[in-house]
Amino acid sequence: MKITIVGTGYVGLVTGACFSEVGIDVTCVDIDVNKIENLKKGIIPIYEPGLDEVVHRNVKKGRLHFSTNLSESLDDVEVVFGAVGTPPDEDGSADLKYVLEVAREVGRHMKDYLLIVTKSTVPVGTAEKVREALKGELVKRGVDLPFDVASNPEFLKEGAAVQDFLKPDRIVVGCDTDRAKKTMERLYKPFTMNGHPVIFMDITSSEMTKYAANSMLATKISFMNDMANLCEIVGADVNMVRKGIGSDSRIGTKFIYPGTGYGGSCFPKDVQALIKTADSYSYSLKVLKAVEEVNNAQKSVLVNKLMKHFNYDLKGKTIALWGLAFKPQTDDMREAPSLVIIRKLLEAGAHVKTYDPVAMKEAERILGNKVEYGQDQYDVLIDADALLIATEWPEFKFPNFNIMKKLLKNPLILDGRNIYDLNELKDRGITYYCIGIDTTK
Ligand SMILES: NC(=O)c1ccc[n+]([C@@H]2O[C@H](COP(=O)([O-])OP(=O)(O)OC[C@H]3O[C@@H](n4cnc5c(N)ncnc54)[C@H](O)[C@@H]3O)[C@@H](O)[C@H]2O)c1
Prior knowledge:
Layout (H helix, E strand, L loop, with lengths): L1 E5 L3 H12 L3 E5 L3 H8 L10 H10 L3 E4 L11 E4 L14 H13 L4 E5 L7 H16 L5 E5 L9 H6 L4 E5 L2 H15 L5 E4 L1 H32 L3 H9 L20 H14 L5 H13 L2 H9 L8 E5 L14 H11 L3 E5 L4 H8 L4 E2 L12 E4 L11 H7 L4 E4 L6 H6 L3 E3 L8
Parallel strand pairs: 1-2, 1-4, 2-3, 4-5, 5-6, 7-8, 9-10, 9-12, 10-11, 12-13, 13-14
Antiparallel strand pairs: 6-7
The structure holds nicotinamide-adenine-dinucleotide (NAD).
């Protein structure tokens, strides 16, 4: 079977590599010439555990190809996946210009039956727009070629994307013809043999499922952050409350960790886009609006604590920041809480020194010379007035506190991920703030 993936970003590259891993002939197409040239040389554009091995192995086997030319990549292809970006429009709704451009490009060049599958996260009604865009090009060409559209939202997590794709909890497919259903069944068979289900449904429900899933996860995070803030006020320990509620199987232990708010390329934009979809049908998603409000405020919580500690004067202070990526095991900094923290520190007149195990290159691309970049996690502590932690990378969890105390000007840590034990740090003479516990008492 031969397929083409359009858009070779986090989703497209992982999807293409993993399909080729099970023997499918895959071409990954992108308009970013530099990205494709690098991939042809074996240079992987993103940090994603295990991805480089899968890519290199399948390129070597001749099953995974890269191209900037979509028209040439449609020969003998049965399925085209669209995995291009759907960034927020000015008003927060999903911008479909890349998705529809792919549909038009396919319509301009397809020669035979094709199934065009949207893997990008897109609002309800997009499949119909894809169908119309593609059909419009066929009409312009004066040809009447058969095609189907399908929705196949992606649920992989950055940082565990390869494993998530190879061993998915579930695969959701929305389609409206038997032919499309059979093709998708065949394509995903290697991933479902161990019992991972493909859930077939109508296209509208499939498009809705992706937004509902991300919104539910974002809701859990904002709910817990709201609880954390109240815990501080009433004198409760959110870490204990989390354990107490998480042991209830109806609630579960995942996604109830308080922190500095959710970020990344998906939750913020998808929550906003779903709110906009509902608004456009004159329905107000009150819960999600609150989720977003809580999240925006949460990104400032750590800096607010720091400001209070220094009597609202950070001018001339040097602040070290560990963790730039929006979560561990990725170099993705899109909508990362660290960016809000850095902006607020700079606005308050502080000097910022940063370190992240893999996101330093990405940080330099985004932040340029606004901040200083450390060689390692200890380097940034030299003469710093405080350390802030924004991402819970494993290597930050058991640091050498003796070295840290020696390097820091003040033994002061503000932990946005609750990775340390309050009593241990107190015993070591380190002033410690975290989320959801009033550590000043
Ligand atoms: N990143 C994630 O964790 C994740 C998870 C699930 C779903 N999604 C969704 O998947 C989609 C893609 O996300 P991503 O993070 O992979 O985006 P990305 O920005 O990493 O990659 C998108 C790629 O599409 C390319 N592109 C744009 N227009 C093109 C065109 N006309 N032809 C060919 N290539 C084109 C861009 O150059 C880019 O390389 C989004 O809708 C996103 O919401 C992302």
